Amino acid sequence: MLEAQHITYHINRKILLDDVSLAVRPGELVAVVGANGAGKSTLLKTFSRELTPTQGLVLLDKKPIRGFSALELARRRAVLAQQNPLAFEFSVYELVMMGRYPHFEGHPRPEDQAIVAYALERTGIARLSGRAVPTLSGGEQQRVHLAKILAQLMDADELNQSGAPIRQPKYLLLDEPTTGLDFYYQHSLLEVASELTRRGYGVIAILHDLNLVMQYADKVLLLKEGKALAFGKPASVLTADSIFKAFHLSVQIIHQPELDGPLIVHTRQTSPVPFPSPI
Amino acid sequence: MQTDLSPLATTQPLPQASRPGLSRSKGWWLNGLLAVLLVVVMIWSVGIGAVSIPIPDVLAILLKQLGWEVGVVEPQQETVLTVIRLPRILLGVLVGAVLGISGAAIQGLFRNPLADPGLIGISSGASVMAVLMIVLQLRVFSDLSSLSGLYALSLAAFAGAVGTTLLVYTLARKNGRTVVSTMLLVGVAINVFCEALRGLMMYLADDAQLRAISYWSLGSLGGASWEVLQVTTPFLLVPVLLMPRLSKPMNAFALGESQAGHLGVDVSKLKRNVVILATLGVGVAVAVSGVIGFIGLVIPHLIRLVSGANHRTVLPGSALLGAIVLTLSDLVARTLVAPAELPIGIITGMIGAPTFLFMLVRGAGRKPYTEN
Prior knowledge:
CATH superfamily of the domain at 121-243 and 251-291 in chain B: ABC transporter involved in vitamin B12 uptake, BtuC
Oligomer: heterodimer
Largest interface: A-B, 56 and 46 residues
GO molecular function (chain A): ATP binding; ATP hydrolysis activity
CATH architecture of the domain at 121-243 and 251-291 in chain B: Orthogonal Bundle
Domain ABC transporter (chain A): 2-250
Function (chain A): Part of the ABC transporter complex HmuTUV involved in hemin import. Responsible for energy coupling to the transport system.
Largest sheet of chain B: 2 strands, antiparallel
CATH class of the domain at 121-243 and 251-291 in chain B: Mainly Alpha
Protein name (chain A): Heme ABC transporter ATP-binding protein
Keywords (chain A): ATP-binding, Nucleotide-binding, Translocase, Transport
Shape of chain B: globular
């Protein structure tokens, strides 16, 4: 289990996170939602150890995350960042191979090459493998980075016996993973994430599309101004009431028997101000 | 309903990696080719000069040194080759290799393909110390042609390089982290200061000192000898041999510090290692041969244009091409106005600056530094 206990994070007396707790168990896809500036990315960065919380602890398997070496951590969790700067023109193949760096010394082994080839196929970018990453579109680049983190956590057993449960729980931290992706690949990405949870991965994803949360997340944390507003199953957390509290936006929740879950639709009549001033 | 969302049915046999070795084999080819080229260039250029030695005679003399008597060797040619030319060629190879590989490493550190070892004050610090010593006329420097004077000057230059780099590095550290953009800006400021100090020393200098300063700040391999090689080779070889071991973390570093960290790279350790190795290499190179510009900037660029960005190829490739280009530049420097000699920095600058401009226009350096 990967969990954050009572996380508070200050920067220059500004409170970005105020006593937030969140845990993800193997097999779960946990979504984090909230308005811009609600503290979602900050929370994810404490999970990835990029930020040290002012108060509170992040634990992996009940052990403080501080105690892990960078390499141990890299084999247990992978991070899909919101920004992906790239200083030099690496090819798609080389960049995805970087996901395997925590696993080999010197030259990539055959299994590293096989895993990279699988990750390229799985994200639909195999035909781009020789291209320079900066020449790709935003959505294609996002898929390259997704392939990189898939390759980072996978091991040879998973490749050889597809669907078999993994030995040691592993975690994906996704910061707005659907950014730049078209309709098809938004769903494809979350399908990949769900498939991984079935194999025993835990996933935390910051998402903006509440309908994707309804459809794919097992649990959802709703943040507002650094505080946890609600946590639980999407259908019980994402109510018209809580969404109005978090986003100042009136919505209707539509239940259709032929859909997987409820549908959230913004209703313009009851919300005349599209950009409410922040309180 | 959702099965069509998987781009690949997982029951299909595993795809073969479509081009697993693409960049790797290309890199091997390139570096193999460069290594062969370097040997050819060395043998060819060692025979050229005031006393011309045909290649078969060069080979015969070299084999004789190794203990194989092949044909008759002319004593005069043998002396010129073993006493004058060979140490100079070897020094050129080492200095070129260290400048090329350090340039590539520092560009990786700054995540900016236009960065140069000079940027963080290595060359500046080294040359300002040397100029200070020349003008202030400390006793050991009174006779610069003597071996002790040369060593002392080199030592001062090396100390200047280390000192300046540490200063830049320390000033750019904030809360235990090095902010790379600050490091660049501090480097710029220190460079300006060193330049002013050097200007002041040139203002104070007499004619003979001015000559020495200009000769030294434009660079030359004229000081090469077996003794110089003996002292400097270890310091020049260490960065060339150790830096390629950093290629994996340096590749990951191109994704930014936080993402490199996510991939298990100890980022502070990587930065420290690159700075130490580059300071050692370039500091000693500047100390022994003066300021030779543009090798560290242009060479890694050329390698990247051919092989792509993978440091596994770029680092050794930059060492090899740096060695080739400096050997050839020195050949031009010592033959163009023979029996006099041009400072080698003039040659590399004249070739390097237009190449650099050409690269800018072509857009090879279009990506500015981004910090996240």
